[in-house]
Each structure stands twice: as C-alpha cells, then as structure tokens.
Amino acid sequence: MSYMHPEIQIGPIFASDLPGCHECLEDRLIAGDPKPEYTKAFWETYDQDPKAGTRGFLEHHALIAAGLARSLAEEAPGATRSLYTYHVLTGEIIHHTFVPVSTCPRWRESGLNETTARKGEVL
Ligand SMILES: [Zn+2]
User: Fold this and answer.
1) For residues 102 and 60, what is the distance between their CA atoms, to the nearest angstrom?
2) Among 7-11, 28-32, 115-119, which is the least confidently predicted range?
3) How far is the CA of 89 from the centre of ligand 1 (A)?
4) Ligand 1 being an ion, which residues bring their Cβ within 5 A of it?
5) How far is 32 from 96, CA to CA, in rounded Å?
6) What is the DSSP string of 58-116?
7) 25 CA → ligand 1 middle, Å
C-alpha cells in the first residue's frame, strides 16, 4: 500500500508464486506516470529518509484502503496480480492487473506471456 497524492495504491500482493517483482511494478508505475520525475524524486526522498512523507491518514481514506487490502487478501491465498488505485479527491476506485515487464526473469519463467495478460486491464 502506498500513497502518492491524490491516489492510494493497494496491491499487488508479492509472494513466491507471483510472476514478476517489485522492480517490474516500479517500471510500470513510472511508464504510466504523467510526471515521472516527481514520483522518482519522492521515492528517492523516502529511500533516504523513511520518516519523510505522510504522518497519518484521514480515517475514511484508511478504512477504504484497508477494505481494498482485505479484498485482495481474500482474492487468492498467495500472491495476486490485482491492485487498486483509490483517488482520494474523486472517490474513484480502479482495478488494475499488474503485468510484469517482458524482460523480467520471473515473468518469463512463469509460462505466462503478455498476450495472455492483455486480456485484462493492464497497469
Ligand atoms: Zn520483475
């Protein structure tokens, strides 16, 4: 779960059976980001100072994010490629399917391919 105003991202759930990795997720997020230089700057700041950033969340935002996290946890016993984005200003919740980058060794070893993945909504 991460919060980059105005969106809270919930998921995917990484586990040993998830084809793909956190680096793939970062690549996908940056590829779809309208201002990737800002996002990268935030990530670097948080990497250097884990105490930087939001100190708390509004109760209703936390409740919605927790509910979406529970939904993901109930979706599968292990990993899930699903993730949600919750827009805190509009209240919109969008479901995405995480598709690792084609060069990811874990993705290639999974036996899945992007043609199969394109059937769903792709992050
Ligand atoms: Zn990967």
Assistant:
1) 37
2) 115-119
3) 31
4) 20-21, 24, 100, 104
5) 12
6) -HHHHHHHHHHHHHHHHH-SS-B-EEEEEETTT--EEEEE----TT-HHHHHTT--HHH
7) 7
- Interatomic CA distance for residues 79 and 61, integer angstroms: 24
Q: Which tens digit of pLDDT belongs to each residue from 49-75?
A: 988 877 888 899 999 999 999 998 888
Distance 84 CA to ligand 1 centre (A): 19
Residues 85 and 122: their CA atoms lie apart, in Å, by 13
Q: In what order do the strands lie in the sheet with 7-10?
A: 2-4, 7-10, 82-87, 93-97
Taking the centre of ligand 1 as the mean of its atom positions, its distance from the CA of residue 53, in whole angstroms, is 26
Quote the CA–CA distance of 116 and 26 in Å, as a whole number.
21
Q: Which two tokens stand for residue 113?
A: 């391919």
pLDDT digits (tens, 9 = 90+) for 95-112: 998 888 888 888 887 776
Tokens of 82: 């699903």
Q: How far away, in angstroms, is 100 Cα from ligand 1 center?
A: 6
